[in-house]
Amino acid sequence: MTTFITKSGVMVVLCVGALIASIAGINGCSTKSQPVTLNILAASSLSNALDDINELFHQSAAEIKITAIYAASGDLATQIENGAPADLFISASTKQMDWLESMGLLLPGTRINLVGNKIVLAVPLSSTLKIEGFEDLPGSGVQKIAMGDPGFVPVGTYGLEAIEMLGIDYESLVPKIILAGSARHVLSYLENEIVDAGILFATDIAFSEKVRAVATAPDEVNKNIFYPAALLKAGKNQEAAKQYLDFLSGNEARTIFEKYGFLVIADSQDTGWQQQGD
Question: pTM score, two decimals?
Answer without folding.
Answer: 0.81
